[in-house]
Amino acid sequence: KMTGNKFPSINSRYRIPIPESEQIISVKVATMPEVAEELYEMATEADLEGDEELEIEMPMLKNDLVPANSFLSLGMVPWDTVAYLRDNTKLHQAAEVDLKLLGEGLPIVLIQTSLPKATKLIDDLQEAQGLHGIGFNIGEDPMEETSYDLGIFKTYDGVLHLFGEFVQNDPVHKKAKQKWDKRCQATDGWCGLIIARGITGASRGQPDFKDMMALFEVRFLSTKELGIGPLQLMPISL
Predict the structure, then answer these.
(1) Does residue 6 belong to any structural domain of this protein?
(2) What does the pLDDT look like over 161-177, one tens digit per residue?
(3) Which among 54, 92, 164, 184 is least surrounded, fewest beta carbons within 10 Å?
């Protein structure tokens, strides 16, 4: 009996009649453990390679990084503010190069939430080896005939994280996205993430310097660099 990846040596003899004849021949049947083990190893390696290729072709997109009910916005901070935040935040992830002070400032994604949730978000990004880049991907809801800009963070562990869903034809978002794209071009593809506390206070939507807890300076990632292509909402039958 063969189970799992164990292939014992088994043999047996059978007496088989020859059709349309009165003769009976004796046949010996035996397993080939060495060949079986080699084929099993080849199949296992092929499965592993197939899994790796699948992961490369279809990166994981998670939706559990950014706290629920956070305030999200696309904007810009002047370079003098960037200089201040580099020295006065709980965490500063510097750019991989010395940024040139191009354009009016650094385009940023602002996430404002409560102090405990902001702290956890910062810790989660550190556990993911840091923030690698920020990008936008096309999303479609064919049932509602609506298109979205899906805001995506890519962490250094290779995982993609959804941080926001913005209706493409919404006038406010459309204007903010156009400014974001122009500012990223002006900074030669550099942008940032600011994580702030104080969502329930008077500074909601416009956090003070004391509310800003982290600054990440990262690359803007194109749709091609995100590598997932247009996403479509699919109905699920219950």
Answers:
(1) no
(2) 999 988 888 999 999 99
(3) 54
